[in-house]
Write a structure and sequence with these properties.
Layout (H helix, E strand, L loop, with lengths): L11 E3 L9 H7 L8 E3 L16 H9 L9 H11 L6 E4 L2 E5 L9 H15 L5 E6 L4 H9 L5 E8 L5 H8 L5 E6 L3 H13 L6 E3 L5 H18 L4 E6 L4 H11 L4 E8 L4 H6 L25 H7 L2 H7 E5 L2 H15 L5 H10 L6 E5 L7 H8 L7 H4 L9 E3 L3 H9 L3
Parallel strand pairs: 4-12, 5-6, 5-8, 6-7, 7-13, 9-10, 9-12, 10-11
Antiparallel strand pairs: 1-2, 3-4
Helix pairs in contact: 2-3, 2-8, 3-4, 4-5, 4-8, 8-9, 13-14, 13-15
């Protein structure tokens, strides 16, 4: 890959190399390339430090960073409006012990997934001009509710959310199945990997369905997730720093890698995993590292075969990947210990996913940024197990119990999903 300072003709390639390069809107609306690959930029724009270094307004910074990636396919005023609406919540950087915690959970669904979902939904709605587009999303916890909230009620889009039945927290499930116009939730009798495989199968062979995807397999989800990496460095005013990322499907990590390849001075990434540690094993030299997903307390990271591994391999040769990225894994027992230790030492209450990352950050060189991906109130049972008391409830969650729900059980096969979507009217 080469750097392109002007980035006037940004195009996107498939990781599998069997289709022609496309523009951003095509990559966004297709979700997955026709050959089954994931879209990646043909060239990497150089994002100069003055673009982000003195930023004080997140949406304004976001517009400057995203402009070259969108290849001028969307007018500046519309892009600015999209980002003002999508990213209208705070993104604080907080010192917690030795680490700097970037809180990414102040959006409407209390998860970092709000960044990508809210931005992507508005971009898609801008580009869709014909019949409504059905957005497929597989979720292991937080992605589904962020997509349902971000895409719901937009006139040109409807959403099918697939989640593994019985494998998300009660609060997460309630957020997923609340009735929203244009949204259907499907409780799949299988794992997240089953849900993801069903989505990919239909995207490659959609038949008469008009489909796209809102998982991080869609490059339109990744690009907005780059933004908070720049924001952290702007707020910290560091010349260089390590970044510790809670990892599942590797989308969050891939977004950070893209930012670093465009010039953000990340010294090293720490890929913090739970017991689903195929990627850390790969980084350690194992060849057959990936397998079936394992249920853990940090369920949004319960991914056995992460889709974005294919992107990472395309962006970074294995030797460079191992130089830039360090793997780490954390058991449930150590996750609880991390929640307890951080709270006792600093008074900071972390959700289980952030706790995994905080555990991995302990041995890193200052400064180290930890991405805090979800609000602890979404995981009251786990926090109570660690601390003896649950987090305080928050307004975004207190009203869920009284809201109407809509959910359909589904067998873990592409044909079952196709039949349900074809009968949706």
């Amino acid at each position: 890959m080469v750097s392109d300072h002007a980035a006037e003709h940004m195009r996107y390639l498939s990781t599998r190399g069997n289709v022609q390069a496309v523009d951003f809107s095509t990559a966004l609306l297709q979700g997955l390339a026709p050959d089954g690959g994931l879209y990646v930029p043909e060239k990497l724009p150089a994002i100069e430090p003055q673009t982000w270094k003195s930023a004080t307004d997140f949406p304004a910074m976001a517009a400057r960073i995203l402009t070259p990636w969108l290849a001028h396919e969307i007018p500046d005023r519309i892009l600015a409006s999209v980002l003002d609406q999508a990213l209208n919540f705070p993104v604080p950087l907080i010192k917690v012990g030795r680490a700097w915690v970037l809180e990414l959970f102040h959006g409407p669904t209390l998860s970092f997934k709000d960044f990508g979902a809210r931005t992507m939904s508005r971009l898609m709605n801008h580009f869709v001009k014909e019949d409504p587009l059905t957005i497929l999303v597989a979720t292991s916890g937080d992605t589904g509710s962020a997509v349902a909230d971000g895409f719901g009620n937009l006139p040109n889009l409807r959403v099918a959310v697939l989640y593994p039945k019985g494998q998300v927290s009660a609060t997460q499930e309630k957020q997923l199945i609340v009735r929203r116009r244009g949204v259907r939730a499907f409780a799949v009798s299988g794992t997240f990997d089953d849900c993801q495989a069903m989505v990919k199968a239909l995207l490659v062979c959609p038949g008469r369905l008009r489909l796209s995807a809102a998982n991080s397999i869609n490059v339109g989800r990744l690009l907005p997730q780059m933004l908070y990496y720049y924001w952290a460095f702007a707020q910290g005013q560091w010349d260089a720093a390590d970044v510790c990322v809670p990892c599942g499907n590797l989308g969050n990590l891939t977004a950070g890698v893209l930012a670093s390849l465009c010039g953000l001075p990340v010294r090293k990434f720490v890929a913090a995993h739970n017991a689903n540690d195929g990627y850390p094993k790969f980084l350690a030299g194992h060849r057959d590292a990936f397998g079936e997903s394992i249920r853990t307390l940090s369920n949004a990271m319960d991914v056995g075969r992460p889709s974005n591994f294919e992107r990472l391999k395309f962006l970074l040769p294995e030797d460079k990947m191992r130089c830039r990225i360090q793997g780490s894994s954390c058991s449930d027992e150590n996750t609880l210990t991390s929640i307890r230790r951080v709270y006792e030492e600093t008074g900071y209450m972390a959700d289980p996913h952030t706790a995994v990352a905080l555990a991995a950050a302990g041995d890193q060189t200052d400064p180290v940024v930890v991405l805090s991906t979800a609000h602890p109130a979404k995981f009251p049972d786990t926090v109570k197990l660690a601390l003896g008391h649950a987090p305080r409830s928050v307004p975004a969650l207190t009203g869920l119990e009284s809201m109407p729900i809509r959910v359909q059980s589904l067998e873990p096969t592409p044909d079952a999903l196709r039949l349900s979507l074809e009968s949706w009217n």
